[in-house]
Amino acid sequence: KPNNSMELFETYSQRARGVKKNQEPDFDEKQLAKAIESLQQTANLLKDPPPPKGPEGEEPEPEAAPESMPHMGDLVYNGSVLASAGVGFSEEESYRISVSINNFTVDQAKKENNFKSIRFFGKILGKSADYYVIECDKEEWPEDEESKLPEPMGTGVNKYQYWVSNTAGLPSSWNALPPTNPEQLGVAKKVRRYFTGNLNAAVAGYPYFPWKEAGYLRAQIAFITHSTIVSPKGVWIADDEAEDPAQSAKVNEEYTPVKAKELLSDKSWNHHRQFIMPEINMCSPPVVEGVDEEDKKKNPVPMLSTLDKDPRSCGKWRFYLCKPFGVRPVHGENVAVCAKSSSWPGAYCVAKGSTIVNVYVGYGMCRLGQKYERPPPPVPASEFKLLEEQEEPLKQPEAEEAKKDEEKKEE
Question: What is the arithmetic mean of pLDDT over 265-273?
């Protein structure tokens, strides 16, 4: 028996694989540059911010911490819950996103732009760059009289404000998306385009989308949000104090987690975002003057409708027990259950006890269920009717002479 059996085994293994000893790894230059850039961004993110500059000869006063921070949840723990379902991000990326969102929140608080809550929406993949997306909510949104949105900020499809970043790096890398409107939603649902990663890029294709990619991204986020944000039944309850309890919901503070076996059915899950009515591309019908509240048209789908009765989700979800580390799952109390959307590939909701995590990682396009066909151009307008040629009208003197000639003939 040789004394160096392990070394010999490694030598024979390298020969069988065709690997030479002390061979340098073959890195692609683009991959290496991308890795270095990612490490540099992470290093810059973890650096302490530079101290504020004070008057010459005087020490700057330390900045006071924000009075209140919005509710964000534990992103690192949520990432581990998603990882048990086989979705989400690596530990390094989850930590980097968490630090970036925290720095962004502090930076916005210094600018007196305070949020009530911030939720990590997910990641939308692009051809040149990706979009990390966060969802922000406020107690009260400032009124914007110039925009004149059918659904102003804080209501309907503009209930939340969304910020995106290509790197999830410094606070300056986050950009706010503009609010959307029914016209944008109507055109966006007919467009099939991959994102480029540039908010100012034009959206090519047919039908023509007259806004930039920022508008197209915001419209797709609206469709994803209102179609795939779900939770186990009982996590959200109707808000009886609201004007329309059927279209309002609040978190149930007394929610008790149910068994994992009960969550393997679409009857045990419901939406808690409003239904976008396809005929008007809004969650709330427009206000019509002279119409009573009783006669006013309402949203036909309740906000907290279960997935088996909701038209946007009926038969479009798949449920399974998570398999952490490849171990066969059992129906225990601490088992995570994953709800996977089949209409929007990349949308998941993972429930583990009282922790509910919704995330989207995909290309921002829904599944058609059939081969995509470009919509035909509109019917051309019919030709206008040709007018009959008319005689040139006579001038006044010529008309009088013609009248005299007719009178002479009659005599």
Answer: 92
Residues 97-101: contacts with CB under 8 Å, at least 24 apart: 97/132, 97/168, 99/45, 99/46, 100/45, 100/132, 100/165, 100/168, 100/169, 100/170, 100/171, 100/173, 100/174, 101/72, 101/75, 101/134, 101/168
Distance CA 304, CA 196 (A): 35
Nearest to 312 by CA among 248, 374, 225, 251: 225
Single out the residue of 192, 188, 197 nearest to residue 223, CA to CA.
188
pLDDT score for 59: 57
Structure tokens at 337: 């259950």
pLDDT of residue 188: 94
Question: What is the pTM assigned to this prediction?
Answer: 0.80
Q: Residue 124 phi/psi, 5° resolution?
A: -105, 125
Mean pLDDT (the chain) is: 83
pLDDT tens track for 108-152: 988 888 899 999 999 999 999 999 999 999 988 888 766 788 899
Give CA–CA dist 288/295, Å, rounded: 10
> Please, which residues bridge with residue 40 across strands?
none
